[in-house]
Amino acid sequence: MPLDFIRDSFVGQLIYYISGGRILRHPEDKPTFSLPARYNTSQRNLDVPSETVTLTDQRKQSRVITNERSKSVAEEEILRSSQDVEKADMTKVKDPVHDTNLVTWYGPDDPDYPQNWSLLKRCFVTFDICVLTFSIYIGSSIYAPGIADLSSEFGVSTTAATLGLTMFIVGYGVGPMFLAPLSEIPQLGRTTVYIVSLLIFVVIQVPTALCKNLGALLPLRFIAGFVGSPALATGAASLLDMWRPEDWPVVVGLWSVAGTCGPVLGPLIGGFAAEAKGWDWTIWILLWLAGGSLAFLSIFLPETSGQA
After folding, report:
1. What is the DSSP letter of 116?
2. Can you give the pTM of this predicted structure?
3. pLDDT for position 20
4. In the structure, what pLDDT confidence band is assigned to residue 52 with cuts at 50, 70 and 90?
5. Where do the domains of the chain lie?
6. By C-alpha distance, which of 247, 24, 235 is closest to 125?
7. Calpha distance 165→139 (Å, rounded)
8. DSSP state at residue 299
9. Which three-class secondary structure state does DSSP give residue 243?
């Protein structure tokens, strides 16, 4: 299981592509991999329905009869048989389960299908999503205890200083409209969007903590909320990828608790820092929390989207 975590994580995918597929290989890359029968062309030809085989024999018989019958009658028989064969083939294609052109899992028991993961693995990935959401969501209220100190240092009113909190919330309210749909792109998937956005979120905290005026602070707070929004918008979607419908209320409820704990614990954690070191240390703590989550999730957050 640990190897699967690393292989399907953001770091694992980077290692895979940089090494040209030689390291952290997928099952399809291994010499022992056997292509399922329904994707095998030769096997598929052997599995032609009996109806199609019978109709094909009729076509052969029709060609023999052409020497004994008139040309028009023979052509009519062949045409009718061809139409029957086409109908039989179309019936087969209409069934998505047997459509060999449909790219999907190898079967209902495919071990790589997230809903077939072990209970331990699904619980661990659920914990990953909760950590990601908490690390982003705490960024809103952790700023609040430092508002008074920031107001005094920058020489602005308390109302103006509160805009740092407001802009962060506006950012993660607007961001999902632009960033959340990216997780549905097969070439990206959910994990790539999570990790890249979290990386930008972490980097943004450095200039934020070093700001010397409100005009520089507010845009950075907006950008931080904007790039952190995918975790809040599609975190539940990652859980639904892994769990079956009967489990959704429980896992989404647990994820919601993690999201709620962020704004609740933010003032408590930020209060000690702001009281002892000033407003900027609320941002440094946010940097450490998000940075630690980034290092952890880059290695241990596998992809859950079936389209990726």
Report:
1. G
2. 0.78
3. 85
4. very low
5. 2-33, 41-98, 120-300
6. 235
7. 9
8. H
9. coil
Q: For residues 57 and 63, what is the distance between their CA atoms, to the nearest angstrom?
A: 10
8 A C-beta contact, residue 208 and residue 224: yes
Label residue 29 exposed, middle or buried (CB < 10 Å: 0-12, 13-18, 19+).
Answer: exposed
For residue range 204-220, list pLDDT tens digits in order.
Answer: 999 999 999 999 999 99
What angle is formed at CA 232 by the lines to CA 9 and CA 301, rounded to 5 degrees? 15
Q: Which fold has domain 120-300?
A: Growth Hormone; Chain: A; (1.20.1250)
* Residue listed under structure tokens 């294609």: 93
User: Residue 18 to residues 5, 197, 304: CA-CA distances in angstroms?
Assistant: 18, 21, 22
Q: Are the CB atoms for 275 and 121 separated by under 8 Å? A: no
Backbone angles phi, psi at 107, to 5 degrees: 165, 175
- The residues, any chain, with a CB within 8 Å of residue 130's CB and separated by 6 or more, are 254, 255, 257, 258, 259
Q: Which two tokens stand for residue 115?
A: 């809903």
302 token code pair? 């596998």
- Cα separation, 42 vs 49, in Å, equals 14
Asked if 172 and 226 count as a contact pair (C-beta separation under 8 A), the reply is yes
